[in-house]
Write a structure and sequence with these properties.
Helices cover 76% and strands 0% of the residues. The chain is mostly helical and 269 residues long. The longest helix is centred in the middle third of the chain and has 28 residues. The protein is elongated, with a radius of gyration of 30 Å. It starts with a helix and ends with a helix.
Length: 269
């Protein structure tokens, strides 16, 4: 008898634990019985969850709306919000999924009033994947490509200032990566390679934020190349880059050295 009682107690305990665990698990979004405007209900709940950064919960509401209410006026915004939840999650996998959502939006709604937002968020899904300058820059190049599409397609967008800021960030990252290659060539005294790389940066990205370093090391590469090869013409080529640095930058770690070189070259001419 005691054994039966214990067995029954144990069974009840297991059932209680099982029910408790089931109650704590993830819940799929369900609509309250008899609810009107179900699409609005899903959109509002998804938006609330997104504000609380409950990305998975939020996504379930938005996905339900997108998949089951094709005629809903909330569907385009829910599609965008899906992409935003993936960006909010900010993992490599989620950012790739975000890019897919925004691409699909632009395919389904190319003339939608928020198409500019979709294009900018598509670019953002790549800027968030950009790696440090010394690493692979494939995501940076993809980001620049998508930002350029935005600039071409939406020249009057209110999001233009944000797009320009993102463009500068991405281009700076790519130029910094190229600069580091040139600087390596400079350090190992392979001046032809350094000169080529620095000139390429100034041609492809003349507004590079740290171009003072490019001006200086390009000028120095020309100057030292002239010294090594006894080619005075290259010193003349160097002078305008020193002068450009002085003209454009009131503050630079290379300013004093550039001024010294300019004085030296002008005294020798």
């Amino acid at each position: 008898m005691i054994s039966d009682v214990r067995s029954s107690g144990l069974l009840i305990g297991v059932l209680v634990v099982a029910v408790t665990i089931a109650g704590c698990g993830p819940k799929t979004p369900t609509l309250p019985p008899g609810s009107a405007d179900a699409d609005k209900f899903l959109f509002d709940r998804g938006t609330e969850a997104a504000k609380e950064k409950k990305w998975l919960n939020s996504r379930e509401y938005f996905r339900n709306l997108v998949d089951n209410y094709p005629q809903s006026p909330y569907r385009p915004d829910a599609k965008l919000a899906l992409g935003d939840t993936y960006i909010g999650e900010d993992t490599t996998e989620s950012l790739l999924l975000a890019a897919n959502e925004f691409r699909e939006f632009l395919t389904f709604y190319p003339t939608h009033p928020r198409a500019d937002y979709a294009q900018l968020q598509l670019a953002r899904s790549f800027t968030e994947q950009m790696l440090a300058a010394e690493r692979d820059q494939a995501a940076t190049k993809d980001a620049i490509k998508e930002i350029e599409i935005f600039l071409q397609r939406f020249p009057n967008s209110k999001l233009m200032p944000e797009a320009r800021k993102m463009e500068r960030e991405a281009k700076d990252r790519l130029s910094e990566a190229n600069y580091r290659v040139g600087y390596y060539y400079f350090r190992v005294k392979w001046y032809p390679g350094a000169i080529e790389r620095f000139r390429e940066i100034l041609k492809s990205d003349p507004n590079y934020t740290n171009r003072d370093a490019v001006y200086y090391h390009l000028a120095e590469s020309l100057y030292r190349s002239a010294e090594a090869g006894k080619e005075p013409a290259k010193k003349a080529e160097a002078l305008p880059y020193y002068e450009q640095l002085i003209k454009e930058f009131e503050k630079s770690e290379y300013l004093a050295a550039a001024q010294k070189r300019v004085a030296e070259l002008k005294a020798a001419s």
